[in-house]
Write a structure and sequence with these properties.
Radius of gyration of chain A: 18 Å
Number of strands of chain A: 3
Oligomer: homodimer
Structural class of chain A: mainly alpha
Helix content of chain A: 55-70%
Amino acid sequence: MKDPLDNLPGYVLRRASAATLAELNQRLEPLKLRHADVAFLLLIDEEPGISQSEAGRILDIQRANMVPFVSRLEKRGLLDRTKVDGRSQALRLTAAGRTKLAKARRIIGVFEASLMNRVPEKMRPMVLPILMALWKGPES
Amino acid sequence: MKDPLDNLPGYVLRRASAATLAELNQRLEPLKLRHADVAFLLLIDEEPGISQSEAGRILDIQRANMVPFVSRLEKRGLLDRTKVDGRSQALRLTAAGRTKLAKARRIIGVFEASLMNRVPEKMRPMVLPILMALWKGPES
DNA sequence: TATTGTTATACTCTATAACTATA
DNA sequence: TATAGTTATAGAGTATAACAATA
């Protein structure tokens, strides 16, 4: 039976997100990482020394939820924390974290290419602009 | 600070979905409905007498998770179940369910229009095809 | 044998409130 | 006063396994 909600962009957006997320998590399973882990590692790699709160703001993860998130990755030896003042801590990848991230990058690369590949070639340049517009609105 | 993941379609897809979902749930809050409730009511309205399992297959909700989902809406008087054979039950909207859905439809309409509105006009015809392609791949 | 509805359960993700120590 | 990190907790949402009744 055809899904009668297929003409609602909001609904299709959600289904597309859920389906592709599940696929990505499956691809990352050999590394024992989830999609959110990789996003976080990518962010730390690009902004070494970033604080936990700032990372949470960028990734839209609440301060409270960052705590177990960070400490799990720290326990696995993928990142470390160094106090920068009495409150903040600077997050940096360890060598193991960088090695892990390099592997994750390859998986992400294949995954993102596969995503683009299912879109007809003519429309590919519109994918990112459209998704950004849906996310953040017309400006920005 | 700019989000350094903004060039990854998969990541932006997830953020766009999460942001718009949260917005839709907020718009639906006065009706005490969640986005999944409305999708379900829309489906029953278009396929009256559909079974619980079949609805779950279409909406990608597991049989086991349909149980509390359906019974909550039934307790609120929005739908009813009638046995069609010893196993299956036909789902149908009640009068109250149709009234509620009519209100939800107006909210959905405004929401979907607002979604399209944040996309530059030239790209709007591509929104649904691109999202469908990301969801289900090139064929279909 | 396969399917429907069901129960029980667990895990992830997300949300809120409150506390502490620092700035 | 505002912020960073933390604790505790609760609520969605989602996943699996197993069972009884029925097809």
